[in-house]
Amino acid sequence: MKSDDFVVIEVADTGIGIAPEHLSSVFNRFWRAEKARSCRQGGSGLGLAIVQAITHAHGGEISVTSKLGAGSCFRVKLPVFEGSFKDS
């Protein structure tokens, strides 16, 4: 999705979702949900914190919406600078 002032990238899944009480924590460094901690293969809890830092460094915003049992949608909004896109 693109407008004159920003580009929006949405990444959605149909996974287990994120509990409402955990939504405010997903961008914290090293935070992992209890279910993720018990998985044999898991991350370090840095991925979303890094994405947030990069997004903010570029003057953007990141947000998440989620429903338990239905999945999550992460939305990154970045400003468009002159010359970012070549005219077709």
Structure, described:
The protein has helices at 34-37, 47-57, and strands at 6-12, 61-67, 71-79. With 88 residues, it is of the alpha+beta class. The relative contact order is 0.28. The mean pLDDT is 84.
In short:
The chain is of the alpha+beta class. Helix content is 17%, strand content 26%.
Helical content class: 10-25%
From the alpha carbons, calculate the radius of gyration and give it in angstroms: 15 Å
CATH architecture: 2-Layer Sandwich
Described by the principal axes of the CA atoms, the overall outline is globular
Strand content: 25-35%
CATH homologous superfamily descriptor? Histidine kinase-like ATPase, C-terminal domain
> Spatial order of the strands in the main sheet?
1-3-2
Tell me the major beta sheet. 3 strands, antiparallel
Give the CATH topology: Heat Shock Protein 90
CATH top-level class: Alpha Beta
DSSP, total strands: 3
